[in-house]
Amino acid sequence: MKGAPRPRGRVLVIAGSDSGGGAGIQADIKTVTALGGYAATAVTALTAQNTRGVFAIQDVPVDFIVRQIELVLEDIGADAVKIGMLGRSEVIDAVCDTLQRLAPGVPVVVDPVMVAKGGAALLELDARATLRRRLLAIATLITPNIPEAEVLIGTTIADTEAMRAAALALLTAGPEAVLLKGGHLSTSAGKAGRVHDFLATESGVEEFRDERIETRHTHGTGCTLSSAVATGLAQGLELRAAIVRARAYVRAALLAAPGLGHGHGPLGHGHTVRPFGMEGG
Fold it and tell me: 53, 124, 212, 257 - which has most CB atoms within 10 Å?
């Protein structure tokens, strides 16, 4: 259409597919699009899941994952990369090698996906060391939740002071920045009714605090946040500004959740979008 705005910010998403549409590649595409970017994808695994949990996983061959990345970067290009579920050591190595070869200098946001909301393992146990050794080293930002951070640093995170220390410890593993998310921290461990996130960079640690939104519709919050940050970076925002916008987007998406499913329902990713052809008048 003549005069239609072009998307600002190309984001290559490397992650698994969620058949329920609430997390994974599907949530990533919705998020990037809702924030005005353009999403291209390299699918690393297929999952059969819904809001109640993950029931089956089908791995994608490593060479096919690499081919997806190569073809996107050679033709469309990318202003940022978001990495989610990789699952296996050989996939982590191949993805890191390919990005270092074809996309040096492109910002990389890593959501170190290990366990699904319903408890299913999404990263093989022997791949944890590879993730820490290879993936964190190429990351502009990593966005672990508390259980993921505990695995990566090998210690329990029981309160906000431990969160601050953990964020700094993760920073020494190689990423340029760490956003440690506190949604899993029990209210008794922090200030009741609040959620605390900690951003660690070479400049220090900044704490973000918000009122907790009580809802069961939280499926895909991690995927959504990391993709929103990647979109901001792709559009030229500074890291902190990209994080602030991403956190605001996720909070609004939680409040706009459509109420689907009988378990952990999806967010309302399209809250920024006015339905075409449904304007009043």
Answer: 257
Active site residue 218: yes
Give yes or no: 223 in active site.
Answer: yes
Is there a contact between 222 and 181 (Cβ–Cβ < 8 Å)? yes
Q: Give catalytic status of residue 222 as yes or no.
A: yes
| Count of beta carbons in the 10 Å neighbourhood of residue 17 | 22
pTM: 0.92
- C-alpha distances in Å from residue 278, one per residue of 10, 182, 193, 273: 28, 38, 37, 11
Q: Residue 154: helix, strand or coil by DSSP?
A: coil
Structure tokens at 127: 């791949």
> Looking at the DSSP assignment, which residues form a beta bridge with residue 80?
11
Q: Which of the following is catalytic: 41, 218, 224, 231? A: 218
pLDDT tens by residue, 3-15: 555 568 999 999 9
Residue 209 β-bridge partners: 196
Tokens of 219: 């499926």
Q: Which residue has the tokens 């005005």?
A: 36
Amino acid in position 33: T
Task: Look at residue 133 and tell me whether its pLDDT is greater than 50.
Answer: yes
- Tokens representing 184 are 């899993």
Q: Is 221 a catalytic residue?
A: yes
pLDDT, tens only, 87-125: 899 999 999 999 999 999 999 999 998 876 666 677 778
Is residue 184 predicted with pLDDT exceeding 90?
Answer: no
CATH number for the domain formed by residue range(s) 10-260: 3.40.1190.20
Phi and psi (nearest 5°) for 83? -115, 130
Greatest alpha-carbon pair distance for the chain in Å reads 59
